Description:
The protein is an alpha/beta fold. 43% of the residues lie in helices and 15% in strands. The strands form five sheets. Strands 11, 12, 13, 14, 15, 16, 17 and 18 form an eight-stranded mixed beta sheet that branches. Helix 3 (51-64) crosses helix 4 and helix 18 packs across helix 19. It is globular, with a radius of gyration of 29 Å.
Amino acid sequence: MDDNDKLENNAEIDEGISKPLWLRELNEAQKNAVTNLNGPLLVLSGAGTGKTRVLTSRLAQLIATRTANPFNILAVTFTNKAAREMRKRAVDLVGPMAEQITLGTFHSVAAQMLRRHAELVGLKSNFTILDSDDQLRLIKQVMEADGLDLKRWPPRMMLSLFSRWKDKGLTPEKITKSEAGDAVQGRAKSLFKSYQDRLLALNATDFGDLLLHMLTIFNQNSDILDLYQKKLTHIMVDEYQDTNVAQYLWLRLLSSSHKNLCCVGDDDQSIYGWRGAEVGNILKFEHDFPGAEIVRLEENYRSTGHILAAASQLISNNQGRLGKSLFTTDSDGEKIRIAGYWDGSEEARTISSQIESLLKDGQLLSEMAVLVRAGYQTREFEERFIAIGLPYRVVGTRFYERLEIRDALSYLRLVYQQSDDLAFERIINTPRRGLGEATLQLIYKLSRTQNISLFEAAKKLIMSDDLKPQVNRALSKFIEDITRWHSIHLDMQPDALAEIILEESGYVTMWQTHKSPEAPGRLENIKELVTAIGEFETLSGFLEHISLVMDNDTQSTDGEVTLMTLHAAKGLEFDTVFLPGWEEGIFPSQRTLEENGGAGLEEERRLAYVGITRARRKLFISFAANRRIHGLWQSAIPSRFISELPENHLIEEMARGLSIGRIEPVMIGLAETRVGKPGYGPGWDRMAIRTKNSQNTPLDMNNVQVITKEQQSKFTIGDRVFHLKFGMGDVQEIEGDKLDIQFDKAGRKKVIASFVTHK
């Protein structure tokens, strides 16, 4: 069967009415999006409204109506998986001719273009695309050649800055003084140029360059741009709300002559601002492409009525949105269950019990998910699931398998047992101490010849003349630290010992100065590890527990509960979803509110919307009155997002003495809005009025202690504090989560806020 036969077969007459296969089961809005083939079109596709069907059906319609030849169509996605799925479906609908569509991710399509025109930006067609490790090595070389202190200006910080500039479509020549700021003593712009020059000399690019170079080529070579505009006459874009500025500029240039640009996305699911995504791209579509049609896909085929009503009500509190409201012709289903617990442990225990109960009722584990705001929150659930033998899988990396946790555990293992060679190997130069491969080879050789541990070999080596003085000092300091920590480990609480080790070793400082996007999350995980250690009486007891956890096999033929972050859950769906930890400061994230103000709050609300719309049938949202976060007990109030949910779609199941809107004492940092007023958020007044405490009195918002950004560590200048190592002291300065303290005996020190307590 040739391509035309395939088209005719898929467009066969159905009950006397000629209707192509791909149009038969579409609702009116979907059909409108599929058949609107010329001019700018924005398809606002809400969660679960059949976005993928619309995309592939529109590709089929373009080809079947001969509006465009397959080779004249460009379709771009954000993942290779999405591209493969779209191509497969298109081939199923119209046959092998769909293989001729230019279809791929932004980076893969741009790379194909760049290889054809590489010489126009000083490259050869066989250029190399550097991975993150190679990029890091290169920027280090550039910075060292410029005489910069890599400890003061971490190379990863510079790469992150350069990546942000490239996401904005900025070449070194376009960096303004305000854009460059005072980073690297005002030398960031020149360093950026040196880095780009070095890439050209190596005939290499990084991922950001693929689009950046094509923007340069298009802007400087009108004939090349004209070539692609004539070749790619119809352009389709998936997940448009996640595009950055460079991607937007690239699409606008390609479509500027024919205007046949169809963008499919959901402004209510734009949750990757921290990754460079610009929600403004979708919000200003009508302005950027005059005469654009907007089609709203609002009929949801995934969730029940109660879930959709709650999601729609929640997201309506955002100002920056184009507006739509999800609905379903399915039943209302079960109401959303809102539960309050005394603490995080009770929350984890109850959710585990609810999962077991659902399992007994016949629901599959694979159709249940626990979605958390931050990665560190998985730890408590992982340990509970292991304790009761509940099979689970973590999307991403399990808590105790994360890089920073393995590093920290290696320190603890080596302190506990100096003969642990694997732990020694992992941390000997982490953070960097100038102990390179040559030093390690000497230690290995001595260990083998004398049949002793690496630690003992290192001790012997520093007593010899085999090492350079600087290397000997660094290795001696490491050996002294491990020996000293071992000498005190039996006399200290294990969590206090861990704090001292991780601080004095420089490991925490390493991540504090590490400016990659992952660094804040890694610091949160380290603090959560200290919290976990505090649940054990001895270091040996904790390490034995970890061995059992790491050895645990939760594979099951009956499936596994999915445990993941809300960001990772986008695009997925489950019959039953649990959303724990809905408390102010956790969700919405305090850090996001402080860094991004009102825009950050709206992105957090969109993330809550994504979480709610992952559920098909059952949804459980919960919060805790008290939670141990990073080793400190904190009392909390429910997330403002709970108060924004419509009451008639909820069932409240509070633990005794708890209610939505009343948890005392309130001690959580509420972000200040841009106008400087406490950001209680929409719905707080209603929450306070509608819910009464056990004495039948409403929540008094005057009793809420608002902690501003400067007070986020719960310390103020002049506070009297205690540190396990340095003793008593007075707070002199506060910088983020670091305190500058004048200790009575140890002098002035900078320490992490979570490692000290009020006295």
